Inverse folding.
């Protein structure tokens, strides 16, 4: 015999759906049907769920009234959680074994750990919550996991610009840009149908040095009549101080790599230390 | 005043943690501490959670006894769910507007929808559950989201092979391979430290035609003394029939594209129709 559903059973079922579709309004009717419960019962379940998520800092649950109403889950990381994530990353990235020839830092392993990039995606979703992006833009290759998990936290499509041309994705739009660090000419390309006009694009990448790539993203989005509503990077180089973009948001600042002494100078950014970006 | 925690509150908190770390054994002590509840209470919460997940097909919850014991969540899609996902994809991909010059199919938009790739990752995690991969391998660029979400479902690192060389990831290992479709020479490269010897690698990609890339993955993993425990692709071309690999698992089969008539011939694979791959 199937036992009667209890509040906890319904709460878990509702939570599973909401966690899978963040930033999305799910009508209450979805749950009354699936769970065979009255709307008033589901409303009480959601109220309990909201309290639990608040208390254990699992994110925010909101109920929206009206015809387009329902319930929405927003992944949210508190200032303390963000700081802890940044400090943990600083510890891991300071390992001298990560220094590569040419003063680069090996970060590929961390950017490939799903549970870590899920967290980082939620950190960026917290930073940019009010920007309401409807697409997350990434640049191949290393920034893709971070950008995808940010897209997941917003539940919006990911779009990936390619260096150079694309062979099998149909008509495309390309722009040239000057790499801010190497001062060489580069190009980035996107399929024409990837970004609709008027889209609000959030650019997420793993690393920003001179800002040339980010500058190129502005140019590229202009060609699509889309708007860049934010730039988020995991790691920002302190030098050069004058970057080709401003208003970007980083989690960590790379002050320098001393190859001779095997030292990585790295710290949480001001955004990670409790000064979240201005929402506008 | 903070109200007393009820079963539902604890179930949601436990579920949130388990959903975020699938395929990972979480000790019960994690929850007794965080929730201020006795082990017997937490055990009952988990029993309820297991029943709810089973009833609503949200995945599998297992309790493991002993010193290394705890509770583990395994995302799992039923045969009916997998068939429904495949049939939905077939409907969407049959759109003649997706036909690109040269008989290619535009799939980038679908492979960039987070909620869809989360589902697909869980489908591959279901297909390959018994293979126990400890790394998911992808080939840049288009296969990355699918591979990352499969890695997420297994909670193991993602590793991405690059076409050609890598500039900033340190010493690397490369192999050459012949593309099964274009018969041209290609190369793929991985950082030396990306895959430990003895690793069990699951290769996930968006498309398999001749199997040249997959063949190259076998060669590459041999250099790392790693084992390819499975090959999963979203879309497999029916032609050529003789592929350079066998035992790969696809979700959909592309029978052909009729550019002149604007027709895409596509169907769910036998794996999607209730013949899951042999587990071994």
């Amino acid at each position: 015999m199937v036992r009667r559903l209890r509040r906890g059973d319904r709460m878990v079922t509702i939570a599973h759906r909401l966690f899978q579709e963040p930033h999305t309004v799910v009508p209450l009717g979805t749950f009354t049907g699936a769970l065979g419960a009255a709307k008033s019962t589901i409303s009480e379940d959601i109220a309990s769920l909201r309290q639990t998520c608040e208390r254990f800092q699992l994110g925010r649950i909101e109920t929206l009234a009206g015809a387009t109403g329902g319930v929405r889950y927003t992944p949210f990381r508190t200032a303390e959680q963000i700081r802890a994530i940044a400090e943990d990353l600083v510890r891991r990235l300071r390992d001298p074994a990560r220094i590569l020839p040419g003063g680069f830092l090996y970060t590929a392993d961390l950017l490939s750990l799903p549970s870590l990039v899920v967290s980082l995606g939620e950190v960026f979703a917290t930073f940019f919550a009010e920007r309401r992006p409807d697409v997350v833009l990434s640049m191949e290759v290393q920034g893709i996991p971070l950008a995808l998990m940010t897209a997941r936290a917003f539940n919006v499509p990911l779009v990936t610009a390619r260096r150079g041309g694309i062979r099998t994705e149909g008509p495309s739009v390309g722009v040239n840009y000057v790499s801010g660090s190497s001062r060489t000419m580069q190009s980035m390309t996107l399929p024409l149908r990837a970004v609709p006009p008027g889209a609000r694009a959030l650019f997420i990448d793993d690393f920003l040095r001179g800002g040339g790539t980010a500058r190129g993203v502005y140019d590229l989005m202009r060609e699509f009549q889309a708007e860049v509503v934010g730039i988020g990077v995991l790691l920002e180089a302190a030098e050069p101080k004058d970057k080709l973009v401003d208003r970007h948001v980083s989690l960590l600042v790379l002050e320098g790599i001393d190859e001779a002494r095997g030292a990585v100078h790295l710290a949480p950014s001001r955004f990670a230390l409790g000064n979240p970006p201005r929402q506008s």
